[in-house]
Amino acid sequence: MNEEILIETIKRLMVSPKGLLAIDESLRTCNSRFEKLGVQTTEEKRREYRELLITAPDIEKYISGYILFDETIRQSTADGKSFISVLQSKGIEVGIKVDGGLSDFPEHTGEKITEGLEGLEDRLKEHKKLGATFAKWRAVYTIGEKTPSLDCMKENAKLFAKYAELCQKNNLVPIVEPEVLIEGDHTMEECYQAIARNLEVVFNELKLADIFFPGMILKTSMVLPGNDAKVAVYNQEIAQSTIKCLKEKVPNEIGGIVFLSGGQKDEEATKNLNEMKNLGPLPWPLTFSYGRAIQNEAMEAWAKNPEDIAEAQRLLLLSAENNSLASVGKYKSS
Ligand code: 13P
Question: In a designed cystine with 326, which of 26, 84, 162, 331 is the match (CB 3.0 to 4.6 A)?
Fold first, then answer.
């Protein structure tokens, strides 16, 4: 591990006023979003869509790194430029999702464990050779009467630690993404408790594995009520709870924290980040790493009118710009 390489990569990723754009939806997730919009679920359609995301003019003003899926990192534009070379020419860092998706956690109904350790180091080396400088591994947790269970949290945390260790050994910045899902009718307090307990378990395992904290990034959910809870919560309240939870549970030395949008309404994700940035100085760099909250409008426009790439890119840029403003607490709702 070369600590300096990891720290330098994180500096470029966490540079203000930028954030990350996640376009690493698995085949299944990407296809299911395409299906809902009546788009064919072919490799060429996914390539075409991601080309517009990657070639969007001026996106580098707001986005420091793209997280790609394995299929995407090998694809090229219609006129033959590799996606990686397009991103690199804009000074954007290339990231790669390296987990292998979710499988059922035996004897724990409804809980999931992340797959993908097998062959991981070879894949990391290959991605690094292709041009990746950072990686992402996601685990998910559902809030329910008995979940997330300690067993599930521990098992996933151990996997995070092994993944992070291999990334750092190969000088790739690991993004550790424990996503507490929004689905359910849980209260905000229950979400707070789930995230807090889980972060404790995650950082405990990372510490045991001797992970170099300044050379890693945490990607987390915000503290939110469940999407079926039917309660309205002020953005300020979400911001305060989220920051309180992170300050209590995340070591000050880590390289940075980024948020997933997790199925919140697009603008809510923007407003919540904005509020957090107005809570005063924080111990770590903090920004966004949204997928849906940045892509939604662009994807819908493209699905309706695939010829009008410029319009989809305009919407993408606008969304990226709004989140960039939020990342410095300067977003004003229209
Ligand atoms: P969302 O912002 O759509 O939740 O996606 C971010 C992500 O990377 C999920 O793994």
Answer: 331
**Ligand 1 within 6 A of CB of 261:** yes
Q: How much is the average pLDDT of 183-201?
A: 98
- Pairs from 127-131 (Cβ < 8 Å, separation ≥ 24): 127/73, 127/96, 127/98, 127/172, 128/170, 128/171, 128/172, 130/73, 130/74, 130/84, 130/94, 131/84, 131/85, 131/88, 131/94
CB distance 290 to ligand 1 below 6 Å: yes
| Residue among 258, 290, 299, 323 to mutate when testing ligand 1 (max atoms within 8 A of CB) | 290
Binned at pLDDT 50, 70 and 90, residue 309 comes out as very high
Is 219 annotated as catalytic? Answer: yes
289 Cα–ligand 1 center, Å: 7
Q: What's the pTM?
A: 0.98
Q: What is the pLDDT of residue 74?
A: 97
Asked if 11 is an active-site residue, the reply is: no
Res 334: pLDDT: 77
CATH topology of domain 3-326: TIM Barrel (3.20.20)
Q: Is the confidence at residue 47, as pLDDT, over 80?
A: yes
* Cβ(291) – ligand 1 distance below 6 Å: yes
Query: Domain map of the chain by residue range?
Result: 3-326
